[in-house]
């Protein structure tokens, strides 16, 4: 019976049915829950962003978990989102000792240490310093010099009549790689904290209706070629708010991953990788600041990271996407 329950809990986890996991495990008297059940419960509470409850559960099996890298990682995750960074760092360091080289663990350790460094050096840190680790070695001034503008697209605000069922192409691959459950306010806040940028209201509104995916209209015009033909960029998909899906803002193929792997400038948030994999579409916060409305730009990796302005804001960008027969 217990083996069947464990299989069911894992299935619910894969289906993002975290509350079902919590209900099932909590229906078992606390004294009858073993180490594995408590870890299922703690993981589900983490995914529901109930981090204080998750910590309480993990601590009930602390003795059994002291040599388990995954236990340290999960409680570290809860401490991180509770902003108890010292405890989170200690947990992630122990997890790394037990299972060296795990990418997620190392990534959280890097974020914590960077956060500590940012706080101590906030007044002296420069944009050139923040980009020195990238092989492109682009600084803000050089990026500004190569910025061009795309044709103006009429600004149309998203409204209550916007129908996401006409916008998205919910193929099996898109649902598997991109689409997550609607984000909670807590998840939105934690993703913004991780990215260090405030997401545009219109983008957040759209993600609450349909969190990431592949648009039916996924081409954006960027002007004419020398021969007079219209030139387009093609989006692979739009990253949603979350961490679970690979193609989400904080997923394994999300904004930071694309920036680091591709050497793109760190002036904002990647919304989409282009189908050619030679560029990305980004929210550009240089003019507006981290908490204001960013422009949408294309960064062309194959053309010395040329930056082309696509739209003054996210909603204009969305309205400018077109279908193209190829």
Automatic annotation (TrEMBL):
Q: Which domain of life is it from?
A: Bacteria
What InterPro entries does the database record attribute to this sequence?
A: Knr4/Smi1-like_dom, Knr4/Smi1-like_sf, TPR-like_helical_dom_sf, TPR_2, TPR_rpt
Write one Pfam family the protein is assigned to.
TPR_2
- Spans of TPR repeats, please give: 69-102
Question: Transmembrane residues, as ranges?
Answer: none
**SMART domains from the entry?**
SMI1_KNR4, TPR
* Knr4/Smi1-like domain residues: 182-320
Enumerate the UniProt keywords alphabetically. Answer: Repeat, TPR repeat
Ranges of Acidic residues compositional bias? 117-144
Region: Disordered; residue ranges are: 113-156
Polar residues bias locations: 146-156
Please give the name of this protein. Answer: Tetratricopeptide (TPR) repeat protein
